[in-house]
TrEMBL record, chains A, B:
Keywords associated with the record: DNA-binding, Transcription, Transcription regulation
Ranges annotated as biased composition (Polar residues): 343-353
Presence of the UniProt keyword DNA-binding in the record: yes
Domain HTH lacI-type: 2-56
Entries under InterPro entries matching the protein: HTH_LacI, LacI/GalR-like_sensor, Lambda_DNA-bd_dom_sf, Peripla_BP_I
PROSITE patterns registered for this protein in UniProt: HTH_LACI_2 (PS50932)
GO MF terms held by the record: DNA-binding transcription factor activity; transcription cis-regulatory region binding
Region listing for Disordered, in residue ranges: 332-353
Protein name: LacI family DNA-binding transcriptional regulator
Pfam annotation, one family: LacI
Natural source organism: Actinomyces respiraculi
Amino acid sequence: MATMQDVARRANVAVSTVSYALSGARPVARATAERIRRVMEELDYQPNAMAQGLARRRAHTLAMSFPAFDTAMGETVFEIVRGAQAAAAELSYHLAVWPVSREGGGEELALIVRQGKADGVLLVEVAVEDPRVEALERAKVPFVLVGRTADPERHAYVDIDFEQAVADAVHALHDLGHKRIAFVGRPESQVASGYGPALRARAGYVQAMQSLRLRPATVSCDASPVAGRLLAAPLLQQEQRPTAVVVLNDMAVMGLVAGLDEMGLSVPEDISVVGAVSSRTLGAMTNPPLSTSHAPGEQMGAYAARALVRLLDDEIKPADCHRLVQCTPVPGRSIGPVPPTFPASSQRRGSHQ
Amino acid sequence: MATMQDVARRANVAVSTVSYALSGARPVARATAERIRRVMEELDYQPNAMAQGLARRRAHTLAMSFPAFDTAMGETVFEIVRGAQAAAAELSYHLAVWPVSREGGGEELALIVRQGKADGVLLVEVAVEDPRVEALERAKVPFVLVGRTADPERHAYVDIDFEQAVADAVHALHDLGHKRIAFVGRPESQVASGYGPALRARAGYVQAMQSLRLRPATVSCDASPVAGRLLAAPLLQQEQRPTAVVVLNDMAVMGLVAGLDEMGLSVPEDISVVGAVSSRTLGAMTNPPLSTSHAPGEQMGAYAARALVRLLDDEIKPADCHRLVQCTPVPGRSIGPVPPTFPASSQRRGSHQ
């Protein structure tokens, strides 16, 4: 059987170059890699991949844990994957996304690392109490959170400042004179399971309202256009009928705007609607375009991947990797001044023109 | 140093059970796995994972190649991931999603398999000429396509019958009296790169129109709400102004409907709009709800994962794994009869009431 030495000799390269070409541990010139590949085929060389792995002790792969394949996802998560993948590639690491659930997913990822398929883990969609975090800590697997647990300081993390993003939306509406500002959040199931963004965004809203001495009114909504659409009527039939709504639920907000239109209400003449922490292009889906804010997903993914590699290299400690990122406003035309009088919900579109 | 035998003895299980718990090759009762894990910690057992891998010669992992993290994705792709993950888990396989590009991605995946990180590959977002397919064939890596190349018969595949889905939409509109039926497809870049769905859907439209002796009119559109919105005006300013539009572009269709609304046109009174091969819930995002059709993504993912494991087990040949799935209609209220006269694009909403 051909050995790695045979391949190196025939391809006229160092043995280490063959090893790098196989492992991806370091970049190898395209033409050289191609020559090595051809020689391996000619000699029918079967790389002793596992033994190799043992020798270098690195899979040069970052595993991203991604429970969100369970539900529909916003574009931000793709930006995170894209940013992490690009940063990993720059450091000669692969990125693989593991669609494991929160329950049992940590154990599965620890196994994956123990099997040499990955070196460390990036955790996305983090819950305040996340069983994956405990499992990875127990297994001594290095990890970086894209999100935060209830007790984040000892972990490496990068997260969106949800509190601030929602508070900004509340203040923008208040500046226009709105006082009855409702909040439409994530699904009740996410609140109950302690999903960080669901809790932090709601907390940010309540805090902002209280600081303005306004009465908070929050409602959960399933992450689907249908649920958003069905919410339009009950939202407006409340005693304290809102003149503005802050929505932290990309899937629902589209349906909500469609539902308001169906009720004959005009945005923003009859009611202002503002999204938060959305994808950059979401706003263009509605008429008028939705005012929202955008999280720098690619930047977050890149930060997380680089931090993980530095943890693997023992260059830093988890407590040194903390970053909270701000959202940037995406202007639309869905917010305006308070309507002079509240229109009755039975009035048809155009009655104010 | 502790051996696997030491772990088995202390945990009071067979050595093979320890091996299964480590490899995930066969299911192990939760309590037993937990006991084994504890004993491994107590003994500070370092599994010779790579050597183990060599012995069993299976990573028990399916790699899914997923170039689409480049662009926004529809819900169908998540359904495919979900279906594949569930089917893989039933067969005691992990599923990892590799966000590699079409160019060079095949080589990267072949390397991953050679390194023992995966056993075979599921290819999503397949181009008619897909360099990943050539690379995997050359490397003799088993794979299943979710999609088809130009020459699909010798490969294992499951794909949506795009031609039929679009033809169904054209015929539904024709039955309502429409003759000027335009087609809004995928981005020009996808057409140029030979992305299967982009080409097949357009071909299905052209064929259906020709079979009805109608003149086809196709337009490409970037996969974004903004692009869809900007398309509304030029689409209606054509000489042969359409009375109906078939859209195979989930990201654009929302923007297109918003753009028509902005122009003062009512759907379906002034123009019918129908989507195709969409997610189940997309329709609720517009007012009126969009008529569309839904592809059975989970079923496709499950079929692909099961087929790949059977290929790995040498139970079947690639040419035995061919499946074309049909979409099911998702009724909405966005299609109606041909308007009696074509409204001028300057007319405002409500002028027909």
